[in-house]
Write a structure and sequence with these properties.
single chain; mainly beta; lipopolysaccharide transport protein A fold; 26-stranded antiparallel β-barrel; 14-stranded antiparallel sheet; about 5% helix; elongated; membrane; LPS-assembly protein LptD; LipoPS_assembly_LptD
């Protein structure tokens, strides 16, 4: 019994010691000082001088938990001394080592033979010595870092000095060697990286690649995180055939503005011996009280800038570079109305292909647009559009030394309309009357009689009507709402002579025949040509709508336009003008949960002849697996006729193209990517790519070969090789944009790990 009471007395003495330690730290009054809790199989010592804990020791202070078999704690200095295996866990990391000296208040000390794991980003590593340099700041001597799981060291970096800032979640390494499969392949004197993926200032991984027109390339980007709402990237791009190009990008965003500015410059191109540059600016801003503005400005030094220095077809295919500034005012007009006023200055830089010249677009210097609408005025809806434009055509010098000058001048458009929408829960009827008035004041005559002031007034009448029927149905054990929507659209526009010998054409072109176009008043874009019409369009649409979500699963539609009179307003003398009826059918949506399609067919119903086919089918069972197949055919698309060395659109040869693309795994961790765009009419490959990708748990290797046409009789070939070390860097030339462009539905599979 005496031994029993002695044991109880010792327990309370030891328990009281830990309580005294806690109380002493709480009385300090500092917000940074937190109470210390200690538990162990045995605790002894003096609570205000020195406490020793033996056996299953656990010390906790805030979110820090230290575990060991033996620990000495000095309450006066707040030092913890541990010899033997130690385990330190916090909210952001886990540390282990052989011995620990740590001040729990200043969080300074050292950990011998350390290993660590960062919970944010999954980074881990080891080293010879781990130095604690304050709250959330550590330094690792002769350390390593990787994001591979324990037991897998496929890649790692070794650094003489590795600093970890957990407050900013960045790592800074000095004298770095990057190893892959135990083979060092890259040395960097300094490396700064974000292990959590957050933005940070510093050099990014070098980018390497090869193109036929630029040679072997290596780029070194520097990212400057200036502020949370704006940043910059400065890249030095070295090309073996061209020299060193500097690419500069600045991005910014505010409460009322945002944009992006890029400036690329190649001093003294080694092939052309000229300085080449590109300027690209996009800025949008809201000024307040309904006023806003936008600037979109693009300029390059020469016509071959993208063809020689671009690495994907999106760049090399650019022909007309927009240079535009707009100011817009939007406001309400009464309870059910709106008014908008826009001022625009617009120009283009045309990058001509010497083997296939085109006519540059007109400049608008300037253009003023006023639109207004008023709804439900005694059951009527009123709309008004007014556009005043100064069209300017810059004289073009042709390769043979001749000059091309087209008529330009002023144009005023007045376009009021009134409609009476009659609508119920199951259908609608909408008659509409419009008046399109155009006035030209030309700098030189177009007409044979020498007139420079030309007027045209065209009335338009349309009647749109439709009915919606619904029923509940079930397909493959899923509940749907099926609709049946017949629609009738009648359009009448009287003929007005608008031949090229009387009226100029600043902007009009014939729009493609489609479901969206067959219910419009004018088959021409712009305002220089107004079609004549006496026709009715009949259409029938059926949709499958998911009962639970309301999402449209599938849509089938057929439509036929029947013309009661020949068309007389045309853009080219060879254009079809007979009263043939046009038939179009389309299906779009998901045929099954993994198969989608978007297909349309246009027929000449009078001759039972196919005019256009647009079809695409995609099989997408899961991320990383996709197969796309498409076919395009058009009879008599605008071809080319050579005239004074310029190419003017006239009906010509048919267009017939097929395209196929896929991303598909074929072995464990391996997947293949391929894309082909082929012209059957010309028996020519327009664009194609082939690639391989290997995905491990912590790294990805991509190899992509891309070939595409940049101009007539000119092609470009680019080879991409990229090693992505998850959570650290991407080494090589990034093909992700090319893959997403060439393979619809492509999934960046390394993001899945």
């Amino acid at each position: 019994m005496n031994n029993y009471y002695i044991q109880i007395l010792v327990f309370f003495i030891l328990f009281g010691s830990s309580v005294i330690v806690v109380a002493a730290e709480q009385l300090s009054g500092s917000k940074k000082k937190l109470p210390v809790f200690m538990e162990a199989d045995q605790i002894k010592g003096h609570p205000h001088e020195e406490v020793e804990a033996i056996g299953k020791v656990k010390l906790q202070r805030g979110d820090q938990v230290i575990s060991a078999e033996y620990m000495k704690y000095l309450p006066d200095t707040k030092d913890a001394i541990i010899d033997g295996k130690v385990h330190l866990e916090r909210e952001k990391d886990v540390l282990e080592g052989t011995h620990l000296r740590l001040n729990l208040e200043s969080f300074r000390g050292e950990l011998g033979q350390p290993s660590y794991h960062l919970k944010e980003g999954g980074g881990r590593g080891s080293g010879s010595l781990f130095l604690f340099e304050g709250e959330d700041h550590y330094r690792l001597k002769k350390g390593s870092y990787t994001t591979c799981p324990i037991g897998n060291d496929d890649w790692f970096i070794r650094a003489e000095d590795l600093e970890i800032d957990e407050e900013k979640e960045i790592g800074t390494a000095r004298h770095v060697r990057v190893a892959f499969k135990d083979v060092p392949f890259l040395y960097l004197p300094w490396l700064n990286f974000s292990y959590s993926g957050k933005r940070k200032t510093g050099f990014l991984a070098p980018v390497m690649g090869n193109t036929a027109r630029s040679g072997v390339e290596m780029s070194l980007p520097f990212y400057w995180n200036i502020a949370p709402n704006y940043d910059a990237t400065i890249t030095a791009r070295a090309m073996s055939k061209r020299g060193i190009m500097f690419e500069n990008e600045f991005r910014y965003m505010g409460e009322t503005l945002g944009g992006q500015a890029l400036f690329d410059i190649l001093p003294n191109d080694l092939i052309t011996n000229e300085t080449r540059y590109g300027v690209f600016l996009n800025h949008a801003q809201y000024f307040g009280k309904g006023w806003s503005g936008n600037v979109d400005y693009n300029l390059v030094s020469d016509r071959d800038f993208f063809r020689d220095l671009g690495t994907n077809v999106n760049l090399t295919a650019r022909t007309n570079l927009l240079q535009q500034a707009t100011t817009t005012y939007n406001s309400s007009l009464g309870q059910n109305g709106a008014i908008s006023f826009t001022t625009m200055v617009q120009s283009f830089q045309t990058l001509q292909d010497p083997r296939s010249l085109i006519v540059p677009p007109y400049k608008r210097l300037p253009q003023f647009t006023l639109t207004a609408s008023q709804r439900d005025v005694y059951g009527l809806d009123f709309d008004f559009t007014s556009i005043w434009t100064n069209f300017f055509f810059e004289t073009q010098r042709l390769p043979d030394g001749q000059q091309l000058k087209l008529a330009d001048g002023l144009r005023l458009v007045l376009f009021p309309s009134v409609s009476m929408p009659l609508q119920t829960a199951f259908g609608y009827l909408k008659p509409k009357v419009s008046l399109h008035h155009t006035r030209y004041n030309l700098n030189e005559p177009v007409s044979e009689n020498g007139e420079t002031n030309i007027n045209r007034t065209v009335p338009l009448f349309s009647l749109d009507s439709g009915v919606v029927f619904e029923r509940d149905t079930k397909f493959r054990n899923e509940n749907f709402v099926q609709t049946l929507e017949p629609r009738i659209y009648y359009l009448y526009v009287p003929f007005r002579n608008q031949s090229d010998r009387i009226f100029p054409n600043f902007e009009s072109a014939e729009m493609d025949f489609s479901f969206a176009q067959i219910f419009t008043e004018n088959r021409f874009s712009g305002h220089d040509r107004i079609n004549d019409a006496n026709e009715v369009t009949l259409a029938l649409t059926s949709r499958l709508i998911e009962s639970t979500t309301g999402n449209e699963r599938l849509r089938l539609a057929v439509g036929q336009r029947v013309r009661f009179a020949n068309r007389d307003v045309v853009l080219a003398t060879q254009q079809t003008t007979s009263n043939k009826s046009d038939f179009i059918a389309a299906i779009s949506g998901r045929i099954t949960p993994v198969i989608t399609t978007d297909t349309s067919v246009q027929l000449d119903a009078s001759e039972l002849r196919v005019e256009k086919i647009r079809t695409g089918v995609s099989y997408h069972p899961e991320p990383g697996k996709v197969f796309n197949l498409g076919y395009r055919y058009t009879r008599g698309v605008p071809g080319v006729v050579q005239s004074t060395n310029l190419l003017f659109p006239l009906p010509g040869a048919a267009l017939e193209q097929v395209d196929a693309s896929t991303q598909w795994p074929f072995l464990r961790n391996w997947q293949g990517m391929a894309s082909v765009n082929y012209s059957l009419q010309d028996d020519k490959l327009l664009a194609g790519l082939v690639g391989l990708e290997y995905n491990s748990c912590c790294w990805t290797l991509r190899m992509v070969l891309n070939r595409f046409i940049t101009a007539t009789e000119r092609t470009s070939t680019a080879f991409f090789v990229q090693l992505e070390l998850n959570g650290l860097m991407r080494i090589g030339n990034n093909p992700i944009r090319v893959l997403r462009q060439g393979i619809p539905g492509y999934t960046h599979t390394s993001e899945q790990f």
